[in-house]
Amino acid sequence: MNRRNNTYYELLDAMKGRGCPVCLLLETYTDRYIDSLLYESVNDTNLRAKLISSGGFCKEHSKKLLRFGYKGYTLGISIIYKDLVDAYYKTLNVQRILSDRRCLICEVSEDMENRILEELIKNIRDYEFYEIYKDSDGLCMLHLSKVLAISKDREVNDLFLELTALKLKGLSDQLLEFIRKQDYRFREEPIGVEADSWIRAIEILKLK
Ligand SMILES: [Zn+2]
Ligand SMILES: [Zn+2]
Q1: How far is the CA of 33 from the centre of ligand 2 (A)?
Q2: In Å, how far are 13, 22, 171, 196, 197 from 142, measured between CA atoms?
Q3: Distances (CA, A) of 100 to 56, 104, 204
Q4: Cβ atoms < 10 Å from Cβ of 123
Q5: Is the whole-model pTM more than 0.85?
Q6: Which of residues 47 and 22 earns the better pLDDT score?
Q7: What is the DSSP letter of 6?
Q8: Which ligand is nearest to the CA of 37?
């Protein structure tokens, strides 16, 4: 039996939520990381040096930082950005721009994503885990392709492919039902599981 860690249990929980469980758990991990980053940046000089050399954050994570700011994390953000703004200011003064920029949150989240994917692959043939995965919304196409790239086990890959095909078929039926009920003749019919099918379709097909 596999040794079970936090990721295992958190992945089980994520499978009970809406959308791709890997996306969901990665979101939780990234939020946790940003939370600690914004607290620790206040005192951790090594981390601050690392952030300066990273040159800042990508578009997606800049948006996320903005949301953290609105939630009250303004001190950590200001400290980090004071360093970054000064670094750009200095290099622009000598008419250079910081090179080799790489968003630190992207870097960390790639590692976290791999950890989650490996946990998923490792446990998928475990009966209890499999049953819960089977009832989940399934993997998005991005994470399905990553699973297939990481896993060397043909049987495991087939299993993920089969389950995803089933999910897509179910989703297709639900979308059809959703569309049908938009017709005035059927509008009085109560809405069922298809109510949020369009949301799940957007989520499951996202490419990046
Ligand atoms: Zn995903
Ligand atoms: Zn990023």
Answers
A1: 12
A2: 20, 10, 17, 21, 19
A3: 11, 12, 32
A4: 19
A5: yes
A6: 22
A7: H
A8: 2
Checking 159-168 for CB contacts under 8 A at 24+ apart, the result is 159/124, 159/125, 160/124, 163/133, 163/134, 163/138, 164/138, 164/139, 167/137, 167/138, 167/204, 168/204
CA–centroid distance, residue 41 to ligand 2 (Å): 17
pLDDT digit string (tens) for 192-204?
888 899 999 999 9
Q: Which two tokens stand for residue 195?
A: 């109510």
Instruction: Kindly indicate the confidence band of residue 43, based on its pLDDT and cuts at 50, 70 and 90.
Output: confident
Which amino acid, residue 80? Answer: I
Burial-class residue 175 by CB neighbours within 10 Å (0-12, 13-18, 19+): middle
CA dist., res. 177 & res. 194, Å (int):
7
Query: Other C-beta atoms within 10 Å of 109: how many?
Result: 19
C-alpha closest to that of 45 among 75, 83, 72: 83
CA of 74 to the centre of ligand 1 (A): 30
